[in-house]
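Subject: mismatched residue count in predicted assembly?

I count 914 residues in my input, but I want to confirm that the predicted structure covers every chain. Input:
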Amino acid sequence: MTRKERYDVVVIGSGPGGLAAAIAAKRNGAGDVLCIDRDLEPGGILLQCIHNGFGMETFKEDLPGPSYAQRFIDQAYAAQVEFLLDTMVLEITRDKHIFATSKQHGFLEIEAKAVVLAMGCRERTRAQVRLPGTRPAGVYTAGTAQRWVNVEGYMPGKNFVILGSGDIGMIMARRLTFEGAKVERVLEVMPYLSGLTRNYVQCLMDYDIELQLKHTVKNIIGKNRVEAIEACAVDDKWNPIPGTEEIIPCDTLLLSVGLIPENELSRKAGVLIDPITAGPYVDDGFQTSVPGVFSAGNVVHVYDLVDWVSEAGLTAGKSAAILAQKGKLAESPAIPVKAADNVRYVVPQTLHPDHLADGDIRLQMRVTRPIEKPVWVEVRSGDNLITRRGEPYARPGEMVTINLKQDLLDVVKAAPELTVAVVER
Amino acid sequence: MKSYDVIIIGGGVIGCMTARALARYELKVLLIEKNSDIGAGASSANSAIIHAGHDPMPGTLKAQMNRLANPMWDQLSAELGIPFKRTGAYIVAIDEDLSCLDALMERSKKNGVPAEIISSDEMKKREPRVNPAVKGALFTPTGGMVDPFAACIAPLENAMANGVEVLTETAFQDFIMDGMMIKGVRTNLGDFGCRWVINAAGTYSDDIMHKAGLRPDFKITPRRGEYYILDKSEIQIDNILFPVPNENSKGILVLGSTHGNTLVGPNSNSINEKGNKAVTADGLAEIWAGAQRLVPSISPRAIIATFAGLRATGNARSLNVDYSHDFLIEVAKEVKGLINLAGIESPGLTSAPAIAEYVVQMLSDAGEKLVEKKSFNPIRPARPRFNHLSREEQAALIEKDPRYGRIVCRCEMITEGEIVAEIHAPLPARTYDAIKRRTWLGTGRCLGSFDMPRVVDILARELGVSPLTITKKGPGSEFLFRPTKEVEA
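Triage response: the counts match. Full output below for your records.
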């Protein structure tokens, strides 16, 4: 099959963000749309997420990851999105020239009118949390173990300790238990859960797997293979508390200590990165600082529900299609959206008030500290409250959302900037 | 019993360079290495510097070997395809009195090492990220960076191409003696006869000579050095920055590398347990503080890996000067047929090719008739590294072999073609770490979490074995335990 060298929209990555972006680009009038993925099949990391819990928002159904992905893959093929699989993008230039390489297709050069970055995220490693100790086999990220168990069909250990209460870690605790392994303990350095409460209930509590908050790994022991880890309690500044050390014999340490948006390609393309999210600065149409380069999903900031990723992809794909057809997005100047009290970051970081004419704009954020009582999510312009919404609690592990409704168009237009806070009611 | 002229114990950089030096002559040579791969001991973790030679105490073997070896690296790099950059190196004075640079200048002169003192402004111009409080620096233009793994693999592959035999997972157990004459060595793989043994066993070189009843007072007390590797997309320093040295070590550096990552480290702590390459919380804090002193702007966000290495610190006294941690390079006197290359700590990597030539000299002086091989070929072509090629070269390589089109390690952009080539190389890579050392796969920001299952798969396929047998670094370090439960269709 001979391939075109020019596309209206090229999407990098075929996970949930990329698939949705490609579908939306097609549906919004883009001509040729290409979706490039490094794996042999589209779907991204969803393909190894064989547990359920996907699609409650989008489809009102509780689906396993591959089924959720398949619905979008079917839509993409139906919309005549082209796929280039088993292909790695090496570089995207500022003027949207793409270099890629593939065993099957060789060395490729592709031009795009608009690019959607949807490379997702990667897992933090032992070095990034500075775990001391030796470097034996048996220290894996939860996602690597998930691939081995769910895709390759191999068990990477018998006795596990899991560091971090991220969602993949908790889901793997259950999965490994199903497969006959023993999960000795889940340790979490923070005083609260870092993943979703439902995963704590369904994956740890239901299987009597112990979670120890304010605990970490002080040492990894073992020359060739992990033989044990030394756990300890930490104080409020995450320093080990002397006397609390405990040796836990195990052969595998899984890490579920956070995800980092994967933006090496974005940086090379000149896209500005927000140091807090580690993803591109985006506007409400998910355009980055480089005109014509959009980004969607976990590459922007790490979501906890795939449904939100798909939704962001739809928005980014639509914007990319409009840009590819019109050459630019007709828009008013953007105003900043800033994180205020108890908000670590908010996405998008800027918005175009005019876009409220086309529909609501969703603001998503993470809180800095947990509040275990009712809270207000407030959007202000200076001292003026523009809109607010109540939530029963706010936790750093659970993303907080508020919609700017269409009818706020005039108020938002008059605002020099917006601030967002999450405060006790 | 299979017999050789020379058996080299240890496949670190000293053993590998010695093997290549001996390969020039009509000698039957065997190198044995106890690990699954060569270059896996002290040579596996260091600062990867070709030192100019300003630091060793004048009159020591360290100073002599460093001076002789430094100029050899250009030719070695060209013949053997070892990545090498002669960048020069800086010793940066920050809080110290500037007179300390004069003292270093004096020492450089005595060691025969070119050096010049540069101003604070000049230093800031050459490395804008240096601490703005810098007062001045000593610049040694002959310093450089090398790929420390290629520095082991390349010479040994060249030695093999010229007839040297290599056995891995082969541990020395004892000498076979006839009176005071060495007749061979006993190993876990059986006995091998020889006339000469070259003890290049790194941190275990004291144990080897003690087995021959030699130098009971000689002792290796490894000094551990810890390091950080920084993400090249966050920071790329192309210089070598030393602090002003103290009594015990050259201090905590910030430096670039041949593969583009910035390194921070090492500290220096004596340890009792040989082979203990654990990193510690205190050690990591120490090297970070040291690095921030040289380059205050470095951010912990840039950290992508930690590692620790061991220096094979001995207690050999220098012949000419008052110094008690010199290299021990000698033909043993009490037994016949043993050459000790022991206590080879920094600048050991730099000095390796000169030490290897010295071994040839010692053999010749001991009456060994060395006849040059007519067939000796000094060239070992480097295998292609996809990520180092131009776009045109990449396209041409994929055209020739499509496996170079599939990226397996996405951070370092290492291809299936490169991995397969290393698995089937003359010195085959049979473990994950062996592939890592040869290609730099898995050394990037995801630390192999993406490539690991794929590499295990490729190793199993290419070696025709089950993935369950694939190891990180030899027996006992298998990645996988068993298949998942079978589910009925």
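Chain A touches chain B through 53 residues (CB under 8 Å). Marking this ticket as 'not a bug'.
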